[in-house]
Specification:
Helix content is 6%, strand content 12%. The protein has five helices and 23 strands. It has a 23-stranded mixed sheet.
Length: 589
């Protein structure tokens, strides 16, 4: 499913150079009449206001020309007028009232106050369909807007009051944008959308509402109320919204006491529900069965009971990170029957172990930043479909990871153990891995055969450990025949690893103790593109320039500012450098 359709619809900003005007309705305006006289639109083009652009399709574009006054003597026949991005403070009623054919009026990004916008400013615009007033200084909404209106944008003003006929009695109205204002419950009429049931998009985020507005239009399919002061959802607030597909309630103060079992139940079309960043201590009951994506992160949820989620048969994404959930508070049957649930976030909780009863068809499981200290043999015995598992920044030790814990995970491609207390790479890792992250542990050796069979591994991250060359079993790297990225930075290596795989494209060796680069250092990696060696103990006399000559695909060679040794200080010749390199190699072996 394409989840981009769930993102808030971007406002259509008027493009006057590409206006699509019905040829059937307006073709007569672009030709001379039978007497040979010019039409009103042709006269408008001839007398176009300074710095504006006028077209025969009825468009006048005066956007961004630093206008301080409303342009005068505009043709009564113009259809689209853009005055956006100027410095207008007043709209004269007598000038605006003449423009009775106007369909699109763009006034966003000006300095309009409610005092400079007459109550009757738009009353005579009987054909107005699109009105853009965002980013001005309005404190109250216009009292009257035309019945023909399709979309109204009053976002980013200082609105404290909406009138009954601002949006009421508008049968064609489809979208209203009121976010980033100063609206309170007292500033909204009880029937704000009376006889405007066709409104599908209502954006009222970032205001000061404590309650969900009353009598919302029945046609709503997207409702944004995030970042308000909502504490309670009144009984029946959503009962008539059977078409609602997306509901955004995050960043409020909603508690479980502020809802009841039927708050969301009648939202039969709801697919996206965002209740993150509220004050809930448990998952709301009575959630509708068609939800696909459920945001519950950043609350104070402590438990996941049995049968609480099982009615949501279509659930695919469950986000419960940043709560206070312990593994023992998750019922073993909490996810029973959720056959479509493939992405589960439980990071930043209080899990002391792997929860039992994990969703069987989960593909992405995020358990990072918990208190997990052990992985038992059967913790992942039924998660056959896992492709990504993140266990980073827990309290795992190598001895507490059962060597058969991953035996069933044949589809796993990405595994992250970073930021734990591992001293060796765990045995029994899935052979299908493409990405393995083990950075920021205490790994001091790679024991014999632990990487054997990983023919699909493309990226291996081992930075910030305690590896030395003699602590890696012979041929370990060569076995990784598909490896493209190897990160060994911030370890204790004294030499470039030998037997690197031919497939390698990037190697990170910065912040080690490497002092010599011999001529054959990268002989086995002809396809390498990036070599990172800064912050080592390299000197110019111990770096063989010929080591890089045959690397035809090399794009990045980062060696930092290494020391240039002089003969008076160390008296090291190139022959001495080669001898030193051989000696280092022998010592490491």
């Amino acid at each position: 499913m394409n989840w981009s359709s769930w993102q808030p619809v971007l406002l259509w900003l008027l493009s006057f150079s590409c206006s699509a005007i019905s040829e059937e309705n307006h073709a007569h305006e672009s030709v001379k009449n039978h007497t040979g006289e010019k039409t009103d639109l042709e006269k408008q083009v001839d007398s176009c206001p300074a710095d504006c652009v006028c077209n025969l399709d009825g468009t006048v574009d005066c956007g961004g020309v630093d206008l301080k006054e409303f342009p005068k003597n505009l043709s009564q026949s113009i259809l689209h007028l853009s005055l956006q991005n100027n410095a207008l403070e007043v709209i004269p009623l007598e000038e605006l009232s003449r423009l009775q054919s106007l369909e699109t009026f763009n006034l966003q990004n000006n300095r309009l106050s409610s005092k400079g916008l007459p109550d009757d400013a738009f009353r005579n615009l009987k054909n107005l369909r699109y009105l853009y007033l965002a980013n001005n200084k309005l404190t109250v909404a216009p009292k009257y807007l035309p019945k023909t209106l399709i979309s109204a944008d009053l976002a980013a003003n200082y609105l404290t009051k909406i009138y009954p006929l601002t949006f009421g009695q508008k049968p064609n109205l489809r979208s209203v944008y009121l976010h980033n204002n100063k609206l309170t419950d007292a500033g909204l009429p009880d029937h704000m959308f009376n006889a405007s049931d066709g409104v599908g998009i209502l954006i009222m985020s970032s205001n000061f509402l404590k309650y969900v507005p009353k009598n919302l239009p029945k046609g709503l399919f997207r409702l944004h109320l995030k970042n308000n002061k909502l504490e309670k959802i009144p009984k029946g607030a959503f009962e008539n919204l059977s078409n609602l597909r997306e509901l955004y309630l995050h960043h409020n103060y909603i508690t479980n006491e502020g809802m009841d079992n039927e708050t969301f139940w009648k939202l039969s079309s709801l697919e996206y529900l965002d209740l993150s960043c509220n004050n809930m201590t448990q998952i709301p009951s009575g959630l509708p069965r068609n939800i696909i994506l459920l945001h519950l992160e950043k609350n104070a949820i402590k438990t996941i009971p049995a049968n609480w989620l099982t009615q949501i048969k279509h659930l695919e994404y469950l986000l419960l990170h940043n709560n206070k959930i312990r593994a023992k508070a998750i019922h073993p049957l909490a996810f029973k029957g959720l056959k479509k649930l493939h992405t589960f976030h439980l990071y930043n909780n209080m899990l002391e172990r792997i929860p039992s009863g994990l969703p069987r068809r989960v593909k992405t499981l995020m358990l990072l930043h918990n208190q997990i200290s052990e992985i038992s043999r059967n913790d992942f015995a039924y998660t056959y479909f896992l492709t990504e598992l993140n266990l980073s920044y827990n309290k795992l030790t190598s001895s507490k990871i059962h060597p058969e814990a991953f035996r069933k995970m044949r589809l796993l491609e990405s595994l992250d153990f970073s930021g734990n207390n591992l001293n060796v790479i765990p045995r029994g890792l899935p052979k299908n891995l493409h990405i393995l992250k083990l950075k920021e542990n205490e790994i001091n050796s790679i024991t014999d055969g632990v990487l054997s069979g990983m023919a699909k591994l493309k990226e291996l991250f081992l930075s910030n450990n305690k590896l030395k060359l003699n602590s890696v079993y012979p041929g370990a790297w060569k076995q990784l025949s598909a490896l493209q990225l190897l990160d060994l930075s911030s370890n204790q290596l004294s030499y470039i690893p030998t037997d690197l795989p031919e497939s390698l494209q990037y190697i990170y060796l910065q912040n080690n103790q490497i002092s010599v680069i011999p001529e054959n250092a990268f002989e086995s990696t002809p396809n390498i593109k990036g070599i990172y060696l800064r912050d080592n103990s390299l000197t110019t006399t111990r770096v063989k320039g010929t080591a890089f000559e045959k690397l035809k695909f090399l794009q990045v060679l980062d060696m930092g500012a290494y020391t240039e040794s002089t003969s008076s200080k160390e008296n090291i010749t190139e022959d001495d450098s080669e001898n030193d390199a051989d000696q280092v190699s022998q010592n490491d072996k």
